[in-house]
Design brief:
The complex is a heterotrimer. Chain A is mainly alpha-helical. Chain A has 4 domains: about 230 residues, no CATH class; about 240 residues, no CATH class; about 35 residues; about 60 residues, no CATH class. Helices cover about 75% and strands about 5% of the residues of chain A. The two termini of chain A are about 65 Å apart. Helix content of chain C is about 55%, strand content about 5%. Strand 5 of chain A pairs antiparallel with strand 2 of chain C.
């Protein structure tokens, strides 16, 4: 580890230097940064480095072990591929945000303590927000704002949990936490926001399809996978995760079937895939955690690949709705081919990457005799083929001819897609290299005849269902529309809250205005117009009422008024106030 | 005519494009579909009745 | 992007010709039949007992997808679908 730098340093600092360069130099820098950072990472052996005292504890900038390393490797790889894909982008905001975003994710997975984790966690949020805002459309601005608000809330939840946890246990080390205390629940939910758990998820399906073409490639990679890493580190074997993951795997596929925006279909299927990983972490056996991590590794590649192909379509045609697309296989044959490879990988076809990792989670569920979970996951496996495996390539490249004739994607995009596609196939064919990087040693064999046959039958008959539904005219029509999701709560519900607040707080405001501003000050002003005289008048009235001696009050009041108006009283207002204050002060002193 | 649409707002309302893309049924397939799904559900019910 | 009506003399793509689509569908149906037929000759081993039943995965995949689409179309869509400018007003 001689001469090495903390893993996140090169990408983050290098990213901040990008604005100083222009043109070719900047492009070279964007490509070189992930490579240099990766070489730097290779210098590190297992252990904890860059340990500094902080408050009563210590911060650890790099904790290197098998779990953090595999995430570190794949994050570098994806950062590099995304950089190739985004080579044409000459937009300082995106160039910087993308690089820093990747660096923040790498920093988070190598963080050895919770404070470091939190800093990189927030850095992810900020840089990701810029990738969304960089689209510079009204919808992107709205989505970026909502993205930021949700993640800030999640981040605060995490921070509250961290502070409580540190003060309870006296240690900031980021290791196994496990559910139990309030602090652990806060951390759990804070991570859950980034992990897109049900009801905490709509930031993902809201923002990713609104980000820039290249921004979405970065976005799809880092935030959720960093959360998966954090769960695998802090909450392995937490039973709640099984239910959460099961729900995540199941519900998004229904939305994906009726969604028209193809990048939003992919966003839903991203949640579905993350669901498999969450389940794997929840089961908590060596096989299932290996499966979760391996699936995260593969998902980064094939989901990135699918987003890249849809991005290329959008780049060339300016359209992404299924209603507008179709028949592009003639114009963009290479992109179409890569898309099919990505679709086969995510659908877990034998010889493609999804097959060798998803099956680990499925098998772990079966070994634990979790039959309902197993059925849900099998349902989700069939469903993912249906909406991501068939729907994406079919509606973009085949289906009815939209009449669009465009150029093939530019070479750098094809290169990035090509490398991803080749890797998907290589991992699917030679999974042992992936398995050797996993946190637990494994001799898992995905290619048994039974398993290959079962998966092929599942997928072929899913395809049959699609074909028959389409030909029978039952398959739902693609409709340009908005599908209400849990974000309704803050997009529409917030208006109700606003209306309530308007009623409640403006009511209080009006009341306070009436009492204090209008009535009370008026009284005060009247009194201080002639404080000496008023004091006498009120005291005299009090004395009359108290003593019960009837007197001509009106007469006396008039006398007092005229005397005070002609300044016949020797005591001025100032002196009176001074006396009152002195009296108060001496009273306070006496009471003390 | 441009080849790229980097900053296009693809969901712009003013943009033309069909609102709906329906899938026309092909003669005869609906019957085949109904037969298949009936057999499928019955067979699954049978399997679970045997094994649960 | 250029959006022009498809001219007749433009070279037709592979899937523009109906006979090619039909051929493809036939190949696909053959795959379906073969994949099911293998189950007669090869007895699959699984962890659950139902996994080794004839055609379990095939039928489950088919029924799962049909249910998925039917539920999405007839239950979810009426519940959640709104006009495109739903959030804009």
């Amino acid at each position: 580890m001689i001469n090495a730098l903390p893993p996140a340093m090169i990408l983050i600092l290098g990213g901040l230097l990008i604005p100083l360069f222009k043109g070719r130099t900047r492009q070279a820098l964007l490509l070189l940064l992930p490579v240099i950072s990766f070489i730097n990472l290779l210098q590190l052996s297992h252990g904890s480095y860059w340990i500094y005292p902080f408050l009563s504890d210590q911060i650890i900038l790099a904790r290197v072990d098998k779990l953090s390393l595999i995430f570190g490797y794949i994050f570098h790889l994806v950062a590099f591929l995304s950089a190739i894909y985004a080579l044409h982008v000459d937009d300082t905001v995106q160039n910087v945000a993308g690089t820093v975003y990747a660096g923040a994710a790498i920093g988070a997975v190598f963080a050895g303590d919770m404070f470091t984790l939190f800093v990189f966690w927030e850095m992810l949020t900020i840089s990701a927000t810029f990738l969304i805002l960089a689209r510079r459309t009204e919808r992107a601005l709205g989505a970026g704002f909502r993205y930021f608000m949700v993640h800030v809330a999640g981040g605060l939840c995490l921070l509250a949990g961290i502070i409580m946890h540190v003060s309870e246990t006296g240690s900031a080390a980021f290791d196994l936490i496990g559910l139990g205390t309030t602090a652990s629940w806060l951390i759990f939910v804070g991570i859950g926001v980034n992990c897109a758990w049900p009801f905490l998820h709509p930031w993902l399906t809201d923002a990713y399809p609104e980000a820039t073409i290249t921004g979405t490639i970065f976005l799809s990679a880092f935030t959720t996978k960093t959360a998966i890493y954090a769960l695998a580190r802090a909450f392995p074997g937490t039973e709640e995760l099984i239910f959460i993951g099961g729900a995540m795997a199941a519900f998004p596929i229904f939305y994906a079937v009726i969604e028209n925006d193809l990048r939003r279909v992919l966003a839903y299927s991203l949640i579905n895939q993350v669901g498999f990983m969450v389940v794997g972490i929840g089961i908590g056996t060596a096989l299932s955690i290996n499966g979760a991590v391996a699936h995260a590794f593969n998902d980064l590649l094939f989901k990135g690949l699918l987003f890249m192909t849809m991005g290329a379509v959008m780049y060339r045609t300016g359209k992404i709705n299924a209603t507008d697309l179709g028949g592009l296989y003639k114009s963009m044959p290479w992109t179409c081919g890569f898309c099919i490879v990505g679709a086969a990988s995510i659908s877990a076809f034998p010889l493609f990457s999804g097959f060798v990792s998803k099956s680990m989670v499925m098998e772990a569920a079966a070994h634990g005799d979790m039959r309902w979970l197993w059925f849900i996951l099998l349902f989700a496996s069939a469903g993912v083929f249906h909406h991501a495996g068939i729907k994406i390539p079919f509606f973009a490249f085949f289906s009815h001819d939209s009449g669009i004739r465009c150029k093939e994607a530019p070479p750098h995009m094809l290169l990035a897609m090509g490398i991803s596609a080749v890797l998907c196939i290589l991992i699917g064919c030679f999974p042992q290299y992936l398995y050797s990087m996993l946190p637990y040693a494994t001799d898992y064999q995905p290619y048994s005849i039974s398993h290959v046959l079962a998966q092929s039958q599942l997928l072929i008959f899913s395809a049959l269902a699609f074909t028959l539904l389409l030909l029978a005219g039952i398959y739902p029509a693609e409709i340009r529309s908005v599908n209400v999701d849990a974000d309704w709560i803050y997009r529409k519900g917030s208006r109700q809250i606003y209306r309530f607040c308007k009623w409640a707080f403006n009511g209080i405001n009006d009341w306070a205005d009436r009492i204090f501003v209008q009535q009370f000050t008026k009284l005060l002003a009247q009194f201080f117009e002639d404080p000496g005289g008023n004091l006498q008048k009120y005291s005299y009235r009090l004395w009359v009422e108290g003593s019960g001696i009837p007197d001509d009050q009106e007469q006396v009041a008039k006398q007092i008024d005229s005397r005070s108006r002609s300044a016949a009283y020797p005591v001025g207002v100032g002196v009176l106030l001074a006396v009152v204050i002195l009296a108060l002060v001496s009273l306070l002193l006496y009471l003390r | 005519m441009t080849d790229t649409h980097e900053q296009d707002n693809n969901q712009d309302h003013a943009e033309d494009g069909p609102m709906i893309l329906a899938h026309e049924p092909v003669e005869g397939y609906r019957t085949i579909f109904y037969i298949c799904i009936t057999i499928g559900i019955l067979y699954l019910a049978f399997v679970f009745w045997q094994t649960w | 992007m250029s959006k022009k009506p498809i001219s007749i003399d433009e070279e037709l793509g592979m899937f523009d010709k109906p006979e090619n689509v039909k051929r493809l569908l036939r190949i696909f149906y053959a795959c379906v039949v073969v994949s099911l037929a293998i189950d007669i000759f090869y007895h699959k081993h699984g962890i659950f007992t139902w996994e080794s039943f004839f055609g379990f995965y095939s039928v489950y995949g088919f029924v799962a997808c049909v249910i998925l689409v039917i539920v999405a179309k007839y239950v979810l869509r009426p519940l959640v679908m709104r006009k495109e400018d739903y959030y804009n007003d």
